[in-house]
Design goal:
There is one protein chain. By secondary structure, this protein is low in regular secondary structure. The protein has one domain (about 1-70). The protein is about 5% helix and about 0% strand. It binds zinc ion (2 copies).
């Protein structure tokens, strides 16, 4: 797969990711039960996919707008 498309690290979504952290499925909870860290270390407890920042799309350079820019 090449070019722009679905963020590979989102928890769900098909053509676009759902913007949720794939490690904790958007719960923000650490799934590693043997860890002393209660929050998901991947998203730091936010539940937001850190790869795409919640946009659900892969980021390929500065020409692609972020979700924040889209909502401004
Ligand atoms: Zn993502
Ligand atoms: Zn997470």
């Amino acid at each position: 797969m090449s070019g722009r498309g679905r963020c590979p690290d989102c928890a769900g979504g098909f053509l676009e990711g759902n913007g949720r952290c794939g490690q904790c499925n958007g719960t923000g909870t650490n799934t590693q039960l043997d860890s002393a860290q209660p929050q998901c270390p991947y998203c730091k407890g936010t539940g937001v996919c850190q790869t795409c920042g919640g946009s659900g799309l892969r980021q390929f350079g500065a020409d692609y707008p972020t979700i924040q820019e889209l909502f401004e």
